[in-house]
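U., I forgot to send this yesterday:
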Amino acid sequence: MGEMKLGAIEARFADMIWQNEPVTSSQLVKLAQNELTWKKSTTYTVLKRLCDRGIFQNQKGTVTSLISKEAFYAAQSEKFVDDTFGGSLPAFVAAFSSRKKLSEREIDELQQLIEKMRG
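Result:
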């Protein structure tokens, strides 16, 4: 499996696939042309790159994901916390909330999540 990260344009392209899958490669070319103004060759180049990374597959002209959007971004979040905060979620939340005050609703949601994990 290749590198599991996406640049900004790759993320937009990946979102197109996740929103439309299963999608034929010809439909994907049209979507990328309309939304990203890409040529066919660009679409196939980026698609191959994302397939090589193990995010998508193109079998017999049909493109599907090998990992869901939610699972992909969850893995990215875990990697960020690991790399930046030594894997400490409390350190991440402390850093995040030092610049952005959490709303009462957000605090309640976090508390519910903690209680759910304990229960």
